[in-house]
Every structure is written in structure tokens, then in C-alpha cells.
Request: fold
Amino acid sequence: MKKKKILIRIGSLRHGGAEKVLVTFLKNLSQDKYEIDLLLNLYSGKYLKDVPSWINILYLNKGEMITTNRIQDIPEKAYRVVYQSLLKRFPQLLYSKILKNKKYDIEFAAIHGMRDEILSSPIKSSKKLMWIHNDLTKTEFHNYTDAEFRKFFGFDKIMVISEKIQQDFERLAQNEGEKTKIVRIYNPVDTEEILRKSQESRAENQERFDSAQRDNQQPTFVSVGTVFPQKGFDRLLKVHKKLLDEGFKHNVQIIGDGYDFENINNLRKELNVEDTVEMVGFTDNPYPYFKNADFYVLSSRYEGFPTVLFEAITLKKNIIATDVSGVSEMLENGKLGLIVENSEEGIYEGMKKALQNPEGFNLYQENLTSYKMPFNLENSVNSIMKIIDEL
Reply:
């Protein structure tokens, strides 16, 4: 059987949800069916080591992401911007020099930010596939007008990860043909791996933190995600400080790294909560932190379909989540966890409720115990493979 030749594009394999989901998908593909080139703008990220060896990784630049404006970093930063802009403006250069004029059957944008790169491909015969992970109607973050939204219909298939995102695209579809391009598929999540990894031993500093919690008998709220403004960790810290000032003793753990890490760490110092907030950084196994916390908090300003909530659900955690895209769908309209207003005040009310009346979460626990995932890893991977095979 002739293998399908596929080009997949993504910025890097840093520690983000879309990156993790992509690698989970790739790990469950058959190399007997596909020949895959994975093209990164930047060869960096924690998930590089998890990409199967049979997948060919290509890149435009190599090295870690530069998030500062230090004088010594400016030449390299400027070079990357100019080089990538040049290849984006003249895609024939990219396809001839880096991709060696290879002909692909499918060109796949693994994040919405690769839309224009795929649509401007000089390979007109290839089928174009898009994977949308975020709510693009949050214009204060993405600035996607209806006209910008409409450009996505240049793809042959648009995979979306939540009912809300599907409705947004269907609203802008101008005919039934465009509507048939939109398909909702849940992100591949390996629940067996989550359960297994949650049993692994924790780092020494985590054990010390747990010991301090037990000694103080203080509840712990954990939050996991890439540290940048979308995730609302600044709001979480401000709420934590407010509750401490009101006499509600508790601890917070933030698991993750990102370009906003230093800003959040500095805010932790400014608020004088260094003894009660632990900035753990990135770990490839956050699940023991989930397991040992009392509550999981999603403080995000916007999302698409936060896979991290399915991880919290898998581990039967008490959940407090802002009302962003995907949350009502995942938490079954508040049956599986507490959904709060998407604001600092909403997070405050949710955490205060947890501290004042933890027994109020017992009903969520009962519902979580009997909950069955609406999908599994195999079904999600097979659904995506079916799309690829039929294009």
C-alpha cells in the first residue's frame, strides 16, 4: 500500500496543550500507512524527545525561544524574524531549499497560527487540513474578524475541538459545502498514562511541600499550564492573596513554564506570598501534583477545549474553572465541577466557596465516580486518521 506523504507544521514543541496533543497523536500513528515530515519554525521544546523516530523533523531555526530583549539576544532574535518572514513571503524558497521540492498528499496546520503558511503552499494538488485548538472569537486576544475567520474555509477540512468552536465556524459558513468541512473531534488523551504516571514518586521538593501542607492542614489548589497571560495565573495569585488577607489559609501550586514565568514569579514576590505559592516550573509528569492537591483551578481567560480538565477529571479532582470555551461541555454544565465567571471575582468566589464549604464539592465527587469519558484515545486517533485517509 502506498504511504500518504504528509507535511505537518507547528511553531515548536514547547510545553503547550496543542503541542502535547499533537505528539500524543503522532505516537499512536502507524508508520506503515504514512510518511510524515514535521516542520518546526523553531527546533526546541520539551516534547521533541517524544516524537517517534520514524517521523522526519525539519526546522527553520534551532535553539530556545528568545523571550527577552537583552542586547546580546537582539541579533539572533532579529535574524529569526527576518528569516521566517522571508520564507513566509516567498514559500517557493522554503519548499525548494528545506523541503527539497517534495510533493505532499496532505499539508496539515497543527495550530491556527500556521493557516497562511499552509494556504500559501506552492503545492496546489495537496489537500489542506487545519486543527483549531482555541476560541478565535476572543478578539481582544486574537483579533480575528469575520473576514479573517472566513480564510480558514480555504482548507479542505477544519478540525475543531469543542462544540463552541464548531458553532462559531458554522455561523460563518456560507453554504452546506463549507459546513461539511467542519468536523469536531476530541483531543487524543491517554487516560491510562495519566493514571499510571499519577502513581509515580514526586520530586523531593514536592514531598517537602506536601509535608508542610499536612503539618498545617491547609488545602492546596493546583493549576497546570503554559505560563503566559491566557492562563490567568496573575488572577489566581491576586485571589490567593485576597483570601489569605481574609484569613483563609491555603496553598497554591503552579505547574508549568513559559515566557511569562518571571512576571508571575515577580508578582508572587510583590504580593509576599512566596511561602504559600510554589512555582514548580515544567515537569513531564504533573499528575502526582494533581493527585495530591485538594482542588484543581482553571483560571484561564480563554481556551478552546482545555485538555487539562480531562486530566483533572480522570484523576477525580475537585474542579473550579472559569467559564471559557469548552468548560461547560467538559464539565457537563456544572455537573462535574464548579464553573465560575470568567473574571478575577469569579475565581475568588469559587475558591472562597471551596475553603468555606469543601463539603459542597461532595456531589461533584459522586458524579465524577460514575462518569464515563465521551471518547478514548483510540477513537480520537482513529477519527483523525479517517479524515486523513479520506482526503
Observations:
- The radius of gyration is 22 Å.
